[in-house]
Amino acid sequence: MRSVVTAAVLLVLCSLSAAAQWLNYPSPGTPRRPDGKPDLTAPVPRTADGKPDLTGVWDVVGDRVMPTDGRVRSKYIYDLGIDLPGGAPLQPWARALYDERRNALGVGAPSEQCLPHGIPDAMLTRTLPFKVVQTPGVTIILFEEFNNWRQVFTDGRPLPADPQPAWLGYSIGRWDGDTFVIETAGFNDKSWLDASGMPHTEALRTTERLRRIDFGHMEAEFIFDDPKAFTRPWSVNVKFELLPDTDLLEHHCDNEKWMKKSR
């Protein structure tokens, strides 16, 4: 799928060569099979201090074929609570708003105005991957879509006590064995948790537990706690796969141009 998207982008950006985009460049340090292809089942890479290294370009695993266009998507992008009996445990007002947005097929999403996706929505848009850059004091998550980014501080600082509400909140991280735990708070109430419009309030706190299974596979548990929007804390488990020998593309949002094309 990445190759299809890449071909489309390169067709539009015909003045740029494929080599200039680094879309098929053998990454140093990538374990390889005898035929030269990346070995995605190789052991988890580790940093100098022995911690798993999450660095790499990641894409959510596709597990649903869309009946409208045949594209493969993650089932969670359109319904984050799909694995829970009865769906996500929403408060009545949040359920009514979610149903309204879903009935409108997600029309009115913040992304229509070039505004950011929420957490984990920004990590669930298949074929628009994200990149993890892990360093001792901070882990950076770069999103291809809209060129957005997050900082997860691992230098021991606490979450800010009275933050200015932000689209992606404020994040701190720590290691629990081989699992990277991210705690985030300080959200505004404008982002959607999935593409269908799952709401939340500024009281939202998320916990992400990321575990790299082997070289090419990662699992993540997302835990949501927002007593103003949900009746109880709840979680979802999502799988991701590494995209080896490639990198992110520049992806700017030009909603004026896009809106003209859709008219």
Description:
With 263 residues, this protein is α+β, with helices and mostly antiparallel strands. It has a single domain, classed as Calycin beta-barrel core domain (Lipocalin), CATH 2.40.128.20. 13% of the residues lie in helices and 26% in strands. It is built from 4 helices and 11 strands. The protein has helices at residues 2-12, 18-21, 92-103, 255-262, and strands at 56-60, 64-65, 72-73, 130-134, 138-143, 148-153, 170-176, 179-185, 205-214, 217-225, 234-242. The strands form 2 sheets. A 9-stranded mixed barrel has the order 1-4-5-6-7-8-9-10-11. The protein has a two-stranded antiparallel sheet with strand order 2-3. A hairpin with a 6-residue loop joins strand 2 (64-65) and strand 3. The longest helix is centred in the middle third of the chain and has 12 residues, at 92-103. Mean pLDDT is 89; it is low at 3-20.
Write the CATH homologous superfamily.
Answer: Calycin beta-barrel core domain
Biggest sheet statistics: 9 strands, mixed, barrel
CATH architecture: Beta Barrel
Supply the number of structural domains.
Answer: 1
In order across it, which strands form the biggest sheet?
Answer: 1-4-5-6-7-8-9-10-11
Approximate helicity band: 10-25%
User: Structural class of the helices, strands and pairings?
Assistant: alpha+beta
Query: Span from first to last CA?
Result: 27 Å
- Please trace the helix and strand order, writing H or E for each element: HHEEEHEEEEEEEEH
